[in-house]
Amino acid sequence: xxxxxxxxxxxxxxxxxxxxxxxxxxxxxxxxxxxxxxxxxxxxxxxxxxxxxxxxxxxxxxxxxxxxxxxxxxxxxxxxxxxxxxxxxxxxxxxxxxxxxxxxxxxxxxxxxxxxxxxxxxxxxxxxxxxxxxxxxxxxxxxxxxxxxxxxxxxxxxxxxxxxxxxxxxxxxxxxxxxxxxxxxxxxxxxxxxxxxxxxxxxxxxxxxxxxx
Length: 213
Prior knowledge:
By secondary structure, the protein is mostly helical. It has a single domain (about 15-70, about 80-210), classed as Fido-like domain (Fic-like fold, Orthogonal Bundle). Helix content is about 55%, strand content about 0%. The protein has seven helices and two strands, in the order ααββααααα. The chain has a two-stranded antiparallel sheet. A hairpin with a 2-residue loop joins β1 and β2 (about 85). The longest helix is centred in the middle third of the chain and has 22 residues, at about 90-115. The relative contact order is 0.14. The model has no long low-confidence stretch (mean pLDDT about 95).
């Protein structure tokens, strides 16, 4: 029976918040490079979010469920969020391979429509960017590849897309965004319905823009 990781270790919140902010600053700095989206990149984000945090099993930071026999505690590690189940652990590697392939195809198409440094000025372009934010966020939530911290990593993915196409990082990584819009988007992602998140993300983006000086 795998060692469960259900909650952050006591007293770790300040460090996780600091790590998350440092990570977002790095994404802002590197956004113009338009690197290809990869699962390995998200694994690195996960390690950075939990840097300096003592976890039940050290390799829970960055390694995915049923990924490798070298990480036995993740073999057969199943996750549940409320009434929803993550992808069965045995299917996670294949699901992540599909995620990576689809994300690379989607970003390649949007890259050709929006030049580096160009912001989505039309409603159509903004909708396309927010749709991609919702897709990568929703798929990561649905797959739930990590033992814990999947929502945070999904929010990093959404911010990564936003920054790639000239938007600010409008979704808080830690703590979780306030209000009802984000929980609605997250539940929809677990159901495989990322389109629900588009409207929620638009509300969150507009609220973020209004909050700026």
